[in-house]
Amino acid sequence: MNLIDNRTHTPRPRQAVGVANRTTVEYGVAQAELGCVLIARSVGGVCAILIGADAEQLERDLADRFPGRALNRNEAGLRTELAKVLRFIDNPGEGLDLPLALRGTTLQRRVWQALRAIPAGTTITYAELAVRVGAPTSARAVANACAANVIALAIPCHRVVRSSGELAGYRWGIERKRTLIAKEAML
């Protein structure tokens, strides 16, 4: 596992390693084929998997998403989760089974659960996904739920395409989406 060096990271208040509470989010950062990957865990499970160009950008994004929470960088404590994410990127056929802490509306959570049921190597349209979650006239709301997903890969919103089959926007970049779909298509 290629962990990002955190010597340049501005220290934040820390608590004992491995200790989590309702006001703490532990996170770790690693380098992957897709770029920098940040995985964050709260008391309820993995609450974010972010992908970007650099660790500092991802740390700012995490801080913006969890205002008022203490952020504790702890690659050692998240070694297992980081390894699973990196293995998934390399071999999406293995799947990615992590305990998730989902924060969202009822519709968002239904969409995210439906996304988790889409097998690797398969894509679905926003309209088809809307039908699956019982909201057949709400393709736009379903697309917004996909866009609100902050748990990349474990909630595979990259598997959703436009009705034309074209790739639609992806929070972590259309090229990353293209790469993920292409890797999964080889399964």
TrEMBL record:
Signal peptide: none annotated. Residues 107-185 form the Methylated-DNA-[protein]-cysteine S-methyltransferase DNA binding domain. Transmembrane segments: none annotated. It catalyses: a 4-O-methyl-thymidine in DNA + L-cysteinyl-[protein] = a thymidine in DNA + S-methyl-L-cysteinyl-[protein]; a 6-O-methyl-2'-deoxyguanosine in DNA + L-cysteinyl-[protein] = S-methyl-L-cysteinyl-[protein] + a 2'-deoxyguanosine in DNA. Its EC number is 2.1.1.63. It is an enzyme of class 2 (transferase). GO terms for molecular function: methylated-DNA-[protein]-cysteine S-methyltransferase activity. It comes from the Bacteria. One of its GO terms (biological process) is methylation. InterPro entries: MethylDNA_cys_MeTrfase_AS (IPR001497), MethylDNA_cys_MeTrfase_DNA-bd (IPR014048), MethylDNA_cys_MeTrfase_DNAb (IPR036217), MGMT_N_sf (IPR036631), WH-like_DNA-bd_sf (IPR036388). Keywords: DNA damage, DNA repair, Methyltransferase, Transferase. Belongs to the MGMT family. NCBIfam families: ogt. This is methylated-DNA--[protein]-cysteine S-methyltransferase. It comes from Ensifer canadensis.
